[in-house]
Design brief:
The chain is of the alpha/beta class. The protein is built from eight helices and eight strands; from the N terminus they run ααβββαβααβαββαβα. The chain has helices spanning 13-18, 31-42, 109-120, 143-149, 156-171, 187-198, 248-260, 287-303, and strands spanning 64-72, 80-88, 95-101, 124-128, 175-185, 204-208, 235-240, 266-270. The longest helix has 17 residues, at 287-303.
């Protein structure tokens, strides 16, 4: 099947296949860690987004090395970060790395599929489960509860550190440290802007409908409009003109902040798109704008030194 094949009821059997976690894919294959990763892989789409639309895009893993892994974290807590990765099978050279940052729903099926799409283009794509200390986002049935119980409790500093560990893991498993990019969606869109201020080795960043302004908290003290002058790499922002949460006045504020510091970052607004326009499993999906945004993302990566290896 190709990346345009659709997810049908027959794909339910795939969950049990994905739940088989290989010993070689785990850094410390303890029973507890295997169980956590199997649960992560078998859960499909987060409960908070049910019901899922009927014609979800499903990307085959043919020709790819994919699956769950765990990344040992620095420090004395003996923590391991669950993640999903996808890369071309049998690569004989270091691959460009793309960190894929989740929506508020965690590394569910949609994020895993995006990793496979990137891998088909020659990238080593890795999506770390950035809420794993706070809980499993797939098990919450409502978005407000998910935000209150998990998302609001995740500190930016923790996320930055986990992304650094993910990049280091990728480069020690066949990734090219000199060709590192990041892309994120919704919650992950804001994180993408933030990571572009954090990692000096990053080459390119693409943020999909990530919040640009907001109310500071102890865990999320700043938003992109606050740190536009600190960006170490150019960021491409992809936004929907009909997004009820990220208003056009927010976009205007961000563009003004970028212009003041002569940033090379850019923002594209799709006038007819709402929030989550790339989320093909939700009614918010806008096929034309999603495909155009994807091509702009790939061009941005290439323009800034992270072309695919395919």
């Amino acid at each position: 099947m190709s990346v345009d094949d659709r997810f049908t009821a027959s794909d339910a059997a795939r969950a049990s296949d994905l739940a088989e976690v290989s010993e070689t894919d785990l850094q410390t294959p303890t029973p507890a860690r295997r169980a956590f990763l199997a649960r992560m892989m078998a859960s499909g789409f987060a409960l908070a987004v049910q019901p899922v639309v009927a014609d979800v895009i499903h990307t085959s893993d043919d020709g790819l090395d994919v699956g769950p892994t765990s990344i040992d974290l620095p420090g004395d807590k003996n923590e391991a970060l669950p993640a999903y990765y996808a890369k071309p099978k049998g690569a004989t050279h270091a691959l460009p790395v793309v960190l894929v940052v989740q929506e508020i729903f965690g590394v569910h099926e949609h994020i895993q599929d995006l990793c496979r799409r990137l891998a088909k283009l020659g990238y080593f794509a890795v999506a770390p489960e950035l809420y794993f200390r706070q809980g499993d986002p797939r098990q919450y049935t409502s978005i407000p509860e998910l935000v209150d119980k998990i998302v609001s409790k995740v500190p930016d500093s923790q996320v930055m550190s986990d992304l650094d560990a993910t990049a280091a893991w990728a480069t020690s498993h066949g990734g090219d440290a000199k060709h590192l990019a990041i892309t994120g969606f919704c919650w992950g869109g804001r994180i993408t802007w933030l990571y572009a201020t954090h990692n000096p080795h990053l080459k390119a960043a693409v943020a999909w409908y990530g919040p640009l302004v907001g109310q500071p908290t102890a865990n999320t003290p700043r938003f992109p409009v606050d740190f536009a002058g600190e960006l170490k790499v150019p960021v491409l922002g992809l936004y929907g003109g009909q997004d009820p949460n990220i208003k056009q006045e927010h976009v205007a504020q961000m563009r003004e902040a970028l212009a003041k510091v002569h940033s090379k970052s850019q923002i594209i607004v799709y006038p007819d798109a709402g929030h989550g326009f790339n989320a093909d499993y939700r009614p918010s999906y806008n096929e034309a704008d999603a495909k155009d945004g994807w091509q702009h993302m790939l061009a941005w990566f290439k323009q800034n030194g992270v072309p695919g290896a395919a």
